Each structure stands twice: as structure tokens, then as C-alpha cells.
Amino acid sequence: MANTWLETVSKVESMIPLLGKLGREQSVKVQLAGQTLMSDSVTGLVALFDQHPDIDLARVYQVLEQLIANQTANTAVELEDVFASEDLDALVSSTPADSATPVVLYGFGRIGRLLARRMCTLGHTTPGMHLAAIVVRKAGDNDLAKRASLLKFDSVHGTYEGVVKVDAENEQLIINGQVVKVIYASDPSEVDYAAQGISNALLVDNTGRWRDHDGLSVHLSRPGIERVVLTAPGKQMKNIVYGVNDSDINFEDKVLSAASCTTNAITPILSVLEEKYGIESGHVETVHAYTNDQNLIDNVHKGDRRGRAAAMNMVMTETGAAKAVSKAIPSLEGKLSGSAIRVPVINVSIAVLSLNLKAGTSVEEINAVLKKASTSVALAGQIGFSEEADAVSSDFIGSEQAGILDSLSTKVRGNQATLYVWYDNEYGYSCQVVRLMEKLAQMALANSDTVESAAA
User: Fold this and answer.
1) Is 321 found in the same domain as 410?
2) Would you give the distance in Å from CA 147 to the centre of its chain?
3) Cα separation of 145 and 138, whole Å?
């Protein structure tokens, strides 16, 4: 950091146009310890650099200039890796800025709209992909205007700070100048994406209607769709928690699951503890915000207790998150149990991890281990670390990490540890899904380069 606050602000202000150009024209996302340098906020950048006081801001500026001069495109650049190697050209792969994977959002509910917000956020870049279309069932004559309004205004996450316009004549939304086609269909078999000018697309199914490989493969049979991601736990497919087992993805994998919000929240932390101490057994209790599948007032429901009024009751239910962890961390197979309580808050949940470790530890040590992981390049986007004495659930609305350790609540007795992990079960999870999508888009670009080189 610079010696004075004003010097720091001045240096950060000088980076804004460079970051804007890299994102807008070259589709380059620049990160520091897994956190994105956003081009829309001087305050946000200052706060990020304040977490890393050893970073030379002059050197950061030089790297940004070099990326522009080299016409680097469609990639993510991790500053810590660049500083370590000192060879930017060897470290960064680049593809033409206009070769990006189109993304189709099948379903536009809570997660679908947040994925759209994340992908189209001013100052944020999703290298290698762009939002091309949204598929929904038509809800009425004013459906398009209503979809735009729900994207723009959100009771939980606030007003979207972008420009959302409706092009009713062409049935499309224009989000920050980006044209997004709205396709009306009640079943995947009705859609011909190629006829809409979409090819080799990544489709993200947010409906939860199909959760097995065969059901989701219907999307693959439609012209224009290359790959499918499910935003729910899936059967007969790889369940991916980005940052933990995304290295398991092969280019041949056509259908993948992004697992659940709870699985994403706890798995990165469990992976650190499994590597450091080893986990003998444990129980995961999630205190979860109520969701759209519950009743607002008592009524019939296929899940008995979920039929009771969501905003008035704590509702006992089940979660498959504990068992699903083993799909990302095979060594934990059969070692974790889990259950859940739905509570009367609209967003942000907390997972209580009660673990029997293979080695003894202390509150100080286990917190130190997880704090270090939270600042690492590998897991900074997945693990957050809170030391706030007054922290409550609403403080974590909008958190980009998959899960945030409440370090002041950590309990340890010998080899028994209890940890409390906050997570924005909507936005934090959506950020994880976008990270997975970015990886798939980068894989598609790399494969395209390989095919072109072989043909040449």
C-alpha cells in the first residue's frame, strides 16, 4: 500500500480505466488471491488492496498495461501468479476476444436471475462466455416487462445497478447493452437454439425439474446446445464444488451438477480440515433460510412439515449436503450425517459442523489454518473468514464466497471441533456456479484452439 490514503486512492483511480478496457474490450478478468478487481468502484479496490498491504500498486498498474499492450483476451489473470513467475507471456493463455461461449439460462427464478446479475454486472467480467438467452414459460401478456422488473428490483439483494431495457418487438432484454433473447417454451423439446443463432452453447438448468443424466440430456439433443450444468445436486453425473474437485472435469463431460448451496458452503472448509487433521466422523446441521418451495401459510405439501407457514415456524427437514460432500471429497464417504432446520429468514443460512478429527487441535490453530486458506489463491473465492463480534445473518447478504467461517464461534475440545459457517445460499452459490461456468468456457476455448491448430 502507498504511504498515505490519498496516494493509494490516486493509484487505484488510475487503474479503473485499464480494468474497464480489459473487461469491456478484451474480456479479461484480473484477480488478487481469487478476488476480482472490479472496474466500477474505487472504494472496492482500495478495500481489496488493504487486505494485501505487501502488494506493489505500481507493479499492478504495469501488469494491467502489459495485458492491454499484449492484447490478451478471454482469460482470467491471477496477480499473485504473475508476480511469482515474472513471465506474463508464458503464464497467460489468450484467445480471440470474439470467441466466447454463449450461455443459455433455462429457468429464471432466484438463481437464474442472480446468475444473470453476476454475468452482466458492470465492472465484472466472465471471460470466455456471454449471456445469450433465457428460456421461461410465458406467464402473461406482460411477461417480458415482469421478467425485467424482477431482474432489476430484488427484495433481498436490492436494486440492480445496471441498465435493463425491454425490446418487446424482438422478445429480448438488453442488459447493460448486451442483447439477451427470451425464449418461451414449456419443455426443452420445443426449443431450436440454432434457429436463434446460438451454437455450441452452455445451458444452465435452474428449474430443478430434471436431476438425473438422462433427464438433462434432453437439452443436449436440441440444436445449439453443447453442455449442461444443473444448479442442484445431480444423479449419474459429477457433482462439482468449484475450488475443490473442479479438476475432475473432462472435456467429454457433457452434463454436470454444481451441487447445492450447502454443499458448496461446507466442502471447501472440510477439504482443508481433512488435509490438515483428517476427519473421523461428523454431523452437519444447517439452519437454513426458507425457500420458494415452502408454503407461506399452512397448506398441503408433498413434504409434510414444509407445508406449514414458512415465515412463522422453524421447520425440521432433511438435507443431502452431508452425504454429497463425499462426491467432492471421496475420503469422507460415509463419515458425515446431516439434517436441516428451515427458519423464518428470507436469505443467508448457517451450517454447524460438529467434527471428530483424527488429531487434536485448538481454537487458535484451527482458526489460523482456515484464515490462511481464506487468503490463498486456491480457496479465497470459496472460504471467507469473519472476526466481527457483532456479526449476524444479514451481514452476509451478497457475500461472494461459498461459505464464511464465524471464527469467534469456533469451539474445540481435544479432537472435537465445532465450526459455524455462514453462507448466502442465493448469491454466494450463484458466484460458485459462475466460476464453474467460466472454467467450462475456458475449456471450450482451449479445445477450439487445439482443434484449429491440428487442422492447420
Assistant:
1) yes
2) 22
3) 11
Do 62 and 176 belong to one domain? no
pLDDT at 39: 86
Could you report the average pLDDT of every consecutive run of 10 residues in the chain (456 residues)? Answer: 75 93 90 87 90 89 91 88 72 64 96 96 86 94 95 96 93 94 94 95 94 94 96 94 95 95 97 97 96 90 87 91 92 95 97 97 98 90 95 96 98 97 97 96 79 51
Q: For strand 225-230 and strand 315-317, is the pairing parallel, antiparallel, or unpaired?
A: unpaired
Within a domain: 249: no
Q: Are 241 and 431 in contact (CB under 8 A)?
A: no
Helix (H, G, I), strand (E, B) or coil at 429: helix
Taking a C-beta distance cutoff of 8 angstroms, is the pair 351, 266 a contact?
yes
Residues 371 and 289 in one domain: yes
Q: How far is CA 308 from CA 254, 301, 305, 311, 369, in A?
A: 39, 8, 6, 9, 41
Q: Hey, what amino acid is at 310?
A: A
Classify residue 202: in a domain, yes or no.
yes
Q: Is 49 left (phi over 0), alpha (psi -120 to 50) or beta?
A: alpha
Tell me how many domains the chain contains. Answer: 3
**Among the three residues 91, 111, 130, which one is the final residue of a domain in this structure?**
91
Residue partners of 139: CB distance under 8 A and separation at least 6: 146
- State how far the Cα of 346 lies from the Cα of 289, in Å rounded to an integer: 5
Full-prediction pTM beyond 0.85? yes
H helices of 316-377, in order, are: 321-328, 363-374
CATH of the domain at 318: 3.30.360.10
Q: How far is CA 197 from CA 102, 193, 215, in A?
A: 10, 7, 25
pLDDT at position 380 is 84
Please indicate, yes or no, whether residues 207 and 313 belong to a single structural domain of this protein: no
Tell me: do 80 and 128 sit in the same domain.
no
CB-based contacts of 127, cutoff 8 Å, min separation 6: 27, 28, 29, 74, 75, 76, 438, 441, 442
Quick check: is 200 in a domain?
yes
- Could you report the per-residue pLDDT of 100-133, keeping only the tens digit for each? 899 999 999 999 999 999 999 878 888 889 999 9
The string over 183-197, giving b where at least 16 C-beta atoms fall within 10 Å of a residue's C-beta and e elsewhere, is beeeebeebebeebe
261 is catalytic: yes
Residue 92's pLDDT is what? 63
Listed in sequence order, the residues at least 6 apart from 56 whose beta carbon sits closer than 8 Å to its beta carbon are none
User: For position 393, what pLDDT does the model report?
Assistant: 97
Q: Are residues 282 and 353 in the same domain?
A: yes
Residues 78 and 105 in one domain: no
Is 255 a member of any domain?
no
Domain containing residue 28: 5-91
Residues 167 and 209 in one domain: yes
Catalytic residue among 33, 134, 261, 340: 261
